[in-house]
Amino acid sequence: MSETPKKPSKNDPLTILMKESDAYNHLDQIEKYVEGGQDLSVLPVQPVYLALRKLPLDKVAEYLPKFSKEQREVFMDIDLWQKDEIDVEHFTYWLQAYSLVEDEAVRTDFVTSEQFLLFLKSRFNVWSFDVEDPNYPDHDNYFLTDDNQLLFEFDETFPYVDEVRSLIRHIYYELGVENAYAFLFKMVSDSFSILQEEEYQLRKERMRDYGFVDYIDALEAENPFINIDFLNLFIQKKTAATGSIDEVSKNQNLHNSSLVAFKDHFKKVIDELLKVSDQKRADFLQFNFVRLINARLESQGSLKKGSVAMTRTGSQTKNLILLGFNYIKSTDYLKETPEEGLFTLFSFSDLYKIGNSLIKFNLKDLKKALAAHGFEGDKETFLGDYWSDFLDNSFDTPTKFHAPKDDSPKTIIEFEEYQMWLYKTKTLMALMPFASKFYETLTTLKEEGRLMDSYYLNYTVDDINFESLLLSNFANFYLSSFNENPSQNNGAKLGLTIDEYKAFSQGVVSPSEGKFILTPELFKKIQKFSETYGLNQVFDFNNYLQDLLKSQMEGYDIDSMSDEDFKHVGGPIILTVVKH
C-alpha cells in the first residue's frame, strides 16, 4: 500500500475510525508500509503497538527504526506499567527487541531512556563497587560494568542477563565511561519511589497526545456524578466546549477489536453525528472517542489481555454511551436540542458518564438496601428465584434486565428498559423489610424445632423462602382461611392442603389453558390482601404478586395430578396428608 488510508468525505468521525482501523487490522499492513519505504510515524500508535506485539522479534527490530522516537517511547510506556505499578515482565519484550536492532542511534535512544533505567532499577539491585576493597555477593548472580564501578545483582530466574549486559556496554560505548557511569549511578543514588513517580508523570504527558489515558485518570473517568439531580443539572446547563486537536492526535486510531461492537445497533448515534458540520468539532469528537475507549481499556487492563477482552470492553462502553444518549433524548432535561444535534454540546465521554452514572446510582441503592436488611451472600436466596434472577442480571457486567416481553435478559440501553429496571428495584427495596420479618419468624420457628420436613409435601424446611411464604399467605387469604382482620388470625396455618391448593389454583389459572388469568375477583383479592397487610405501601406490589402467581402456578394439569405429583409443584406450601 503506497499511502495512508484516506478519510471519507462524509463528516462522521466514528465511521472514519472504524474504516481506518480495518486497514491496520492485518499484520502484513506494516510490511507494506516498510516495503514502500514509508515513514511509519504516520501510523496510529495503539493498533500498531498491538500488531507489533504479534510479530517475531527480528521483524520488530527491523521496523522499530522506521517509527518516530516519540512513538517508540509510547510503545515502551504501555508495557512498562500495569495500572500504576511497574510491569517488568511485559517490558522484557522490548529488551529483547532492542537487543536485535542494528541501528545504533535507535539502540542509544532505548538504553538512555528513563523507561530502561526504571526497568533496571526494578529488576536489579545495583551497588557501587570498589576494586580496592571489593565486596561480592555470596552467589554468582551478578556482573560488573566494564569500568568495574557498578555491580548488578539479579535473580537467578532472570533469563535476559546477556541482553542487559550488552545494552549496558552500549551505554558506555555511546556516552563514554564518565557519562555512562553518571547515568547509571542515578539508580544507586535516587529513591526508587521518586524515580517511579517522576517517570509516571512523564509517561502521562507523553501518552496524552496519542490518545492514551493513565490509570489514575481512567479511574476518575469511571466516577459517576454525585447524584441524579446533579446529572440532570449537568444536562440542563451543558454548553459547547471544543478543544484544539493537533495533527498527531488527529491521526490516532484504535484496534479493530475494540470497535467491533460499534458496527451494529449504533445507527441512531451515527445519524446524530452526521449532523455535525464543523470540522474542528468533528476532530475533537473523534479524539475524544479514542481517549474514552483507551481510558476504558486502561481501567479494565484489557489492552494486555488481548482481543477478546478489548471487544468486551468496547461493547460495555457502547452500551453505556447508548444509555446516556437515550436518556438525554427521552427526557426533557435538555430544553432544546441544537440544530446540529446533541454532539455539538455533548462528547462521547459525556454520554458515557451519564449512562455509567445512571447504572451506578441504582446499583448503589440496591447494595445499600441489601446490606441494611442482611440480604447478602447465602441469605439473598431467601428472596426467591424472582428476585435472585433480577439481582443476578442487575449485578452482571453489563447490567441486564428481563422485561416481560423479552425471552431473555437484555443489556439496559433504552430509556424504557432503564425505567422498568428502576421500578423493579423500587419494589424490591420496599419489600425487604417484609422479607426480613418473614426470615426472622421462620428462623425462630426453626430454632424452636416447630418446623420439620415431614410436615410439608413440596418444600423442605430449608427450601421455604419469601416467595413460598407470601404465596401461602395470599392463598389462605384468598380462600378466606384468614380472617380479613389480621388481629384475629392467631391460629393461621403455614400452608394449604392439596384440596385447598387445587381450589386456589382454579381461582388464578384458566382450567382450559393452564394460564394465569387476572379475573376481577382475583384483582379485588390482591388489592384487599395488600391493603390488609400493609403491602400497599410497596411500590407496584400488585404487579409483583401477579408475576409470582403467573410464574409459580402456570403449567400444571391440576385435575389429572395424583397426590404424589404435588411434591413437584411450586407456589404455596402444601401440607403433608396425615393418614389415620
Descriptive overview:
- With 580 residues, this protein is mainly alpha-helical.
- It is 54% helix and 3% strand.
- The strands form three sheets. A three-stranded antiparallel sheet has the order 3-5-4, covered by helices on one side. A two-stranded antiparallel ribbon has the order 1-2. Strands 6-7 form a two-stranded antiparallel ribbon.
- A hairpin with a 5-residue loop joins strand 4 and strand 5.
- Helix 4 packs across helix 6 and helix 17 packs across helix 18.
- It is elongated, with a radius of gyration of 33 Å.
- The chain starts with 12 loop residues before the first helix and ends in a 27-residue tail after the last helix.
Give a brief outline of the structure.
The chain is mostly helical.
Number of strands: 7
Largest sheet: 3 strands, antiparallel
- The average pLDDT score comes to 89
- Shape descriptor: elongated
The poorly predicted ranges are 1-9, 486-492
Strand content: under 5%
Structural class: mainly alpha
| Sheet with the most strands: spatial strand order | 3-5-4
CA-based gyration radius: 33 Å
- Can you give the helix content as a percent range? 40-55%
Distance between the termini: 92 Å
DSSP helical segment count: 24
List the topology elements.
Blueprint (H helix, E strand, L loop, with lengths): L12 H11 L4 H8 L9 H8 L4 H7 L5 H12 E2 L2 E2 L1 H12 L4 H8 L2 H10 L1 E4 L13 E3 L5 E4 L7 H15 L1 H13 L2 H17 L6 H8 L5 H10 L9 H4 L16 H7 L5 H22 L6 H24 L17 H25 L12 H10 L5 E2 L8 E2 L3 H33 L18 H13 L19 H11 L11 H13 L8 H13 L27
Antiparallel strand pairs: 1-2, 3-5, 4-5, 6-7
